[in-house]
Amino acid sequence: MTESLNDPVDHLACAELVELVTAFLDGDLDPAAERRVVDHISLCDGCHLYVDQVRQTTDVLAGLSGGVPLSPEDRERLLAAFRDSSG
Amino acid sequence: MPCAPDNVGGRCHADSVPPPELPPDDVLTGLLLAGDETAFAQVVDAWSPGMRRLARVYVSTEDSAAEVVQEAWLAVVRGIGTFAGRSSLRTWVYRIVANTARRRGGREARTVPASSLGPAGEVGDGGGPTVDPARFLGPGHELSGHWRRPPVPWPGPEEALLAAEVRAEVAAALAELPARQRVVVTLRDVHGYDAAEVCSILEVSAANQRVLLHRARASVRLRLERYFDRAAVGAGEEVRP
């Protein structure tokens, strides 16, 4: 890649970039497209911030995890069902 | 494992990864087939909370979700002999939850709040832009397609994003998403599953998974942006025009 580091920036509009964020964060863009995104955010504060905020959003979403444990009754019922099925 | 090590944007969440003491799938499956109750109790305790949240994506009440989890575990008990090991055991179990919940969700005819419809192109499953086109310079402008109204930094980073109010805002945004988007973003971002596993659990294509995730994240981000805008107004700060 180093030989291409000096290539001129292939411009991408901000309106296009915001639709590539998810593929970018998943590492699913082909190398050329990824390069365009990286190039773009290196020059564009708005898009840099947008990508960052999508990441922050996923962090908040991650903070919602936890769920609710089974009630003791449900748990006991399941263990009983398991015992019966293998007995 | 829910997270592939090369998943650039992803990260594992503590609760989405089976506790280290859970044996590998082949051993675990063997134990379950042999009727090892301790092993069964272990997976029930480790996976039920996540299964409950997955179920909640399809059904309208917590009680229904709890019943779905119960029903799914019973199906696992009955069907463990049919687990072929072509996916991880947890994926196989999650598919059972999704199928069970989907059937029940259909019966309950979950209603999507009207607010989820939003302005055109905002949160639908369709192909419109995920960011309001008015925020970009229009055709004819020298910098057409570039920000007219760029995002402004959010307060933060850590303390603001961890606040209970912010989490509540995001939870509300999640609840209002169209069902398919909600399922995908819940699995990906709340539970930390990687794209391939979500495709496998929901039996959707990679492209479809990405579109649904993309639209869901854009909607939740927009909700947060509006929340921080309101907070800035409340604090008497200057907000962009």
Walkthrough of the structure:
Chain B: Pfam families: Sigma70_r2 (PF04542), Sigma70_r4_2 (PF08281). Chain B: Keywords: Sigma factor, Transcription, Transcription regulation. Chain B: GO terms for molecular function: DNA binding; sigma factor activity. Chain B: Belongs to the sigma-70 factor family. ECF subfamily. Chain B: Residues 168-218 form the RNA polymerase sigma factor 70 region 4 type domain. The complex is a heterodimer of chains A (87) and B (241). By secondary structure, chain A is mainly α. Chain A has a single domain, classed as Arc Repressor Mutant, subunit A. In chain A, 63% of the residues lie in helices and 0% in strands. Chain A contains five helices and no strands. In chain A, helix 3 crosses helix 4 (45-62). Chain A is elongated, with a radius of gyration of 23 Å. With 241 residues, chain B is an all-alpha fold. Chain B has two domains: 14-108, Rna Polymerase Sigma Factor, Chain: A (Orthogonal Bundle), CATH 1.10.1740.10; 114-234, Winged helix-like DNA-binding domain superfamily/Winged helix DNA-binding domain (Arc Repressor Mutant, subunit A, Orthogonal Bundle), CATH 1.10.10.10. Chain B is built from nine helices and no strands. In chain B, helix 2 (37-58) crosses helix 4 and helix 6 (164-176) crosses helix 9. The longest helix of chain B has 29 residues, at 206-234.
Q: Helix- and strand-based class of chain A?
A: mainly alpha
- Mean pLDDT score of chain A, rounded? 81
Euclidean distance between termini CA atoms of chain A: 62 Å
| Structural class computed from helices and strand pairing of chain B | mainly alpha
